[in-house]
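Researcher: Go.
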Amino acid sequence: METVTPSHYLCLSLCLFSIGFFGVLLRRNLLLVLMSLELMLNGINLALVNFSRTSLNLDGSIFVFFIMTVAAAEVAVGLALLVALYKRRNSVFSEDINLIHN
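Model: Structure:
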């Protein structure tokens, strides 16, 4: 049986980040874009914890807590903006956002 090495975790974090990156680029629904951003942040967090664990240094793990705090704030602000956008435009698609037109 093969053991899980740090390179496996790094490959998983790269896959998570890539899926999130392409989700941000290709999705039109802003809720899915926010979910893709969260996936990207989780991929970065996994890589940071992996590097922190392999180097026996807690700096990466501590930095993950700051990223999680920023992600929670992003979700709160992003969902509030999406609710306001839906009330105003009755849509959450990115092409329906026009800041010049009322």
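Model: The CA atoms of residues 52 and 60 lie 5 Å apart.
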